[in-house]
Amino acid sequence: MSGLARVATVVLVCAGAIGGGSRAGAAGTDPFSWAPVKTPPVLGASGRVFAASAGDSTGTRVVLYGGQPPGTSSAYGDTWVNDADGTWRPTCGSTAPGTTGACGPGLRDGHGLATAAGGVILYGGFAGDIGGSVPNGDTWRWNGVTWSRLCTSATCGPGPRALMAMAGNGTVGVMFGGLDGSSIANSTWVFNGTAWTEACGQAGVPCGPIGLASASMAWDGRQFVLFGGADLNGTGAPVDDTWTFNGHVWTKICGTSMGHACGPSARDLGAFAFAGNERSPRGAVLAEGGDIFGNGATQHIDRDAWLFDGARWSKLGPPWNGSSETFPNSGSPPAGPDPLLGLLGPKPALCEIVYIGAAVTHSANPPTLVEKTFVAGRAPWTPAKRNCEPVPAAPPGPVTTTVPARLPALIVAPVTARPTLPRTGSTAPAASGAIGIALVAIGALLARLRSGRGSRRSL
Prior knowledge:
It is built from one helix and 32 strands.
């Protein structure tokens, strides 16, 4: 198959660990408490890959959409909501009684979700069989009850896109990079609740980050943060760079290419989400990820978690914290209760984050998976008390201002449009190299991108 070759499966795995509590990280005591939460059998029976999640505008719920069943070329087209009480509730597209009606976006994997004005937006992705067709380029909005389409692939702006980084802050959504159908994009687009505007990515308007796929993005309370991603225009190896985006320009914070590493190792497909609240309004948690697209003989998946506080990284100690899993490209990770890759969603009004994904229960080709859920919150948070604790009394001294628990809205105006720019902001690979994707997946091909040599191929 030419172009972006078919993908077997990649396991976006979350909370497979048994038990709760926090453990000390490398940088000191983990400020988060972690606890397992029940996952409904209809959601968790077979596991899913390439799904997407985001917190909603209330700050009390997390929305999950789609993904791919392991070992298949199909996709899910269902919507699940993790409510304020921590339970998962199907709303459409599910086999659960009463929720079998189709969701508007239909089958999707490799798509993105972000919280913007008016609700959670969904962009792009494949309609199953990742890499076997041109990605979608449409935008849908979830208002808490139903999906409605806002624009099509021809009218949205970014065009076809999959495996991109997306995040929102309740006012705007931001998208960076990803596969655009024949190459790797390095453009940045901002959605203001109504329309997409390209912020950078064309000649003369450089973004900063190189073209990346499966990078991780989150809002940290003041700015958007991008970490890692796979350099699919090169060897497919992941990077360890951290960038921040203020709605108009990117600023590089750290990374090996700058002369000093950030803390988290180079990785792609890491879960990343806002983890601030009224006591700690700044911060985003990054969990796991790995070298998924590289050309090496083996793959590795990191089993760790990190906190970005707006300026620097510190290591956390979730229950599954341990050494990375390394295994052959043609194999799959060993079975166990620990997660390998995952999805994160924020609930800032409840001072917690939700982690959902599949644990490998049987290592085979394809593997047997089961979805599991964890929640975490900053101490003194507990699963039995989900509301935010009041802000501790300030010591005598200057008067301080309490920051609201809701998602801050730093960016309140759309980025100035540049009508002379082309519709997409893609950067094509070098003429001597062609992009071909082969997912070296858990049980078949766990996602890796090969840099082809010879004539250019496209979808």
